[in-house]
Amino acid sequence: MKAKRIAAIGLVVLVGLGAAGFGYRDELGRLRATMTLFDEGEIVDNFSHMDRLFETVPIPVTTRAEPLPEGPAMEMPAEWQDWLDRRAVTGAIVLRNGEVVHESYHLGTGSEDLRISWSVAKSYLSALFGILVAQGHVDSLDDPVVKYAPQLKGSAYEGATIRNVLQMSTGVVFDEDYLDFWSDINKMGRILALGGSMDGFAAGLTETDQPPGERWRYVSIDTHVLSMVARGATGKQLPDLLAENLLDPMGTYGKPYYLSDGYDVAFALGGLNLMLRDYARLGEMFRDGGRLQGKQIVPEDWVIESTTPSARTAPGRLQYGYQWWMPSDARDGEFMARGIYGQYVYVDRQSGTVVAVTGADRRFREAGAFDDALQMFRRLAGL
């Protein structure tokens, strides 16, 4: 019933915009995209063509990625195909000690598709931030965010530090219920679709329910605040920063882009679009201590610090570092980037394994969905 109610409310909004005239045609189309983005018959194609649905900004990468070496083909587990079907996997790459031992694409997708990262983008921003810290753009992780993003003065973020936003421990009240039309995450989505300001949305949040640093809670808008800090510290836009400091040194396949708001501000918390092979290269770089094909790109001490549990998470299945996840029973060097609907970059340093997966898993929030993925990744790592 809740889903039907959301759809009905959405229809009223769409009809109202339509009645306002052709001046809202683009906004109407993007708003419709937010209402049908995850529909069963459209989700796979949508996730490969987000630039047809939303405003975007290019990431000016000029370096073509050097292919990773091929290794002996891996014998996949007997339950592999069942798992692919169950989790609606669109692509999977497995690396062992830097060599590609498995690569496959499913549900009509291909190697050239630019797939939406969703929250895997958060781990890219974390990697970039470590570079900016090493370059001296940020004095300390314990600086208040308003030092670099003064627009946030008077908001719920005024008392938060950079470390707080990295750890998602700001105490800011933010409802991430994707099934509630009026939740903060869905309000944010409509701001994006209708050409509003993400910076303004973040600055408009005023409520906290605990002191910064006291307890971890997943709050996606914290990552946008981190991007505001990066932009304020450098005077550059996020696509330029990411290209110059991370993606150009790494090299990419294709022409990556970010979803953006109506002010050409990148949707930092989930709007990055890359090929699956690019996601695998992020995992390989972090497996090798920030190095990729012999080049040090992210400082090794940041790789270790950001992928070590540090946030004050409640007892449970997962722990958190700086925009990276660790299973609560993780062994040393086991961590991952995660995005909704089945996007993963899994790393296990001890076995030399990296697994990159894109998906369109509409059941990703069901009980056991994460464990299902983790068990498969560990099986591929030989654990």
List key phrases describing it.
383 residues, four-stranded antiparallel beta sheet, alpha+beta, five-stranded antiparallel beta sheet, 13 strands
Structure notes:
- This protein is α+β, with helices and mostly antiparallel strands and 383 residues long.
- Helix content is 36%, strand content 14%.
- The chain contains 13 helices and 13 strands.
- It has helices at residues 2-19, 25-36, 43-48, 80-86, 120-134, 162-166, 184-193, 198-203, 221-234, 238-250, 276-287, 300-306, 369-380; strands spanning 56-58, 89-96, 99-105, 115-116, 257-259, 272-274, 291-292, 295-296, 318-320, 325-327, 334-339, 343-348, 353-359.
- The strands form four sheets. The chain has a five-stranded antiparallel sheet with strand order 3-2-13-12-11, sandwiched between helices. Strands 1-5-6-4 form a four-stranded antiparallel sheet. It has a two-stranded antiparallel ribbon with strand order 7-8.
- A hairpin with a 2-residue loop joins strand 7 and strand 8 (295-296).
- It is globular and about 55 Å long.
- The termini are far apart.
- Residues 1-23 have low confidence and may be disordered.
C-alpha end-to-end distance: 42 Å
Evaluate the radius of gyration. 20 Å
Q: How much of the residues is beta strand, in percent?
A: 5-15%
| Low-confidence residue ranges | 1-23
Strands side by side in the biggest sheet: 3-2-13-12-11
Main β sheet profile: 5 strands, antiparallel
Q: What structural category characterises the helix and strand content?
A: alpha+beta
Note the total helix count.
Answer: 13
Compute the number of strand runs: 13
- Percentage of helical residues? 25-40%
The rough form would be described as globular
Report the average pLDDT across residues. 92
Task: Provide the succession of SSEs.
Answer: HHHEHEEEHHHHHHEEHEEHEEEEEH
